[in-house]
Design brief:
The protein is built from 4 helices and 3 strands. It is of the alpha+beta class. It has one domain. The chain has a 3-stranded antiparallel beta sheet. The protein is elongated, with a radius of gyration of 23 Å. The termini are far apart.
């Protein structure tokens, strides 16, 4: 009844993806830490994308944590970083 009194409702139309251009970024907190994505679009096409995952940062910690350590201690230190094999290139 209320809708009828307001008149017809037009469905929203999405923008034309071929016209989309710009740069965007997003961050999300994951169980292992923060992940960050940056995208660049030109005329609806992704021209650049960069994904920084928590394991990317944690890889830089391996050398300082394992230098001059016993093998067992080094393995425990690396294991404590909770590295994801799906995030490591």
């Amino acid at each position: 009844m209320l809708i009828e009194s307001a008149g017809t409702i037009a469905l929203p139309t999405p923008p034309d993806p071929d016209e989309a251009s710009g740069r965007g970024e997003a961050s999300v907190e994951t169980p292992r830490g923060q992940a960050h994505l940056e995208l660049t679009l030109e005329r609806g096409q992704v021209t650049a994308a960069q994904l920084a995952t928590p394991s990317t940062h944690h890889l830089t910690l391996i050398a300082p944590l394992t230098e001059q350590q016993e093998l067992g201690d080094a393995l425990v230190a690396v294991g404590s970083l909770d590295l994801s094999p799906w995030e490591v290139r």
